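Open question from group meeting: does this chain pack into something compact, or does most of it stay loose? Before anyone orders reagents, we agreed to write out a predicted structure and look at it together. Recording both the input and the output here so the notebook holds the full record.
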Amino acid sequence: MLLKQLDKNKFIVSHDSEKLEHDIVIINTCGFINDAKQESIETILQAVKNKKQGRIKKVLVTGCLSARYHDELKKEIPEVDAYFGVNDLKEILNYLDADYKKELIGERHLTTPSHYAYLKIAEGCDRKCSFCAIPLIRGKHISKPVKDIVKEATLLANKGAKELILIAQDLTYYGIDIYKKRKLAELLEKLSDIKNVEWIRLQYAYPAAFPMDVLKVMRERKNICNYLDIPFQHISDRLLKSMNRAIDKKGTLKLIEKIKKEVPGIALRTSLIVGYPGETEKDFKELMNFVNDVKFDRLGVFTYSHEESTKAYQLKDNISAKVKQERADALMKLQENISLEKNEALIGKILKVIIDRKENEFFVGRTEYDSPEVDNEVLIKAPGKSKIIGQLKNVKIIDAEPFDLFGEII
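Structure tokens returned:
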């Protein structure tokens, strides 16, 4: 949205996180966990260094880190020209003597390849997970109206986006604040009717009070991917209660069973936290058994980050960084074996693959079971000078590794 507004105000804009050498650099930060905060700070410091060397005239910082630590950042890095929060679009434009153009609502300047786009359907979160700082940064859950989302999705499809990736801090809460009921299923129906949208992908669905009507729509609409990103975080009842996840082990297993029954062949991605305060060897073994039994198609593991102002910050961060990392590595090693077994079972099968890019002698793509950047990829020997980036192709799988497939276009 900001890039589009600047573009229409006759700024020459580009999205380039590597080359910090423009007249004005706007850094969008993350303040969620320690690693992301450190990366944001390093980027700011590099921009400030370039400013001192005369390669940048102004450095502006916005986003989660800036919202959460505004005063501290201003004190520690005063060389930044201005700090803004997460919802300060108009303030940034005003600072740059640019006009806010209301008619651009829903229009975007894509920073992804043109054939896929992230579509945010809500901002903020009403959940009270003990470890999470997002509600402190982003505020309460605010759903975008259905008509606005459909308008934005239509514009994206008209620009060539074949895949729409629905995101929010909590997809499954969508609609409650403005419609007084969950409306994700209805939204999916409307989005799946948009011409030229071939894949719709769901990321960040909260497990507690999951809206079951969504499963029926996923099963019936062919352009909704058989893919669901649903972070369970843990399986120990004791830790789930401390995390304030509003679901227990029994409820988690029942939900997984229901999802797999209602949407046959669905790929489940989850995220887990290791090293949460008080996590014992018994708790971790229970988590390992959970992953081994469920056999998730995709898995992300995070080491617990002790975030000030969260409820869990009152607990003692009593698991060492070394043990946290060892547990994360053990889980990912287990998942590597599971993923290899699943991938080897695909050898000889024909899958629909969207081609994302070309690397050396390979085209690199994804199946409907894989989201960009975080999931598995399909490597296809490049057939001559074919221009197939952004296209969906039928690909025969001929070999497999734990997190990559190899195929040939048929």
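Observations to bring back to the group:
DSSP finds 14 helices and 16 strands in the chain.
The longest strand covers residues 350-359.
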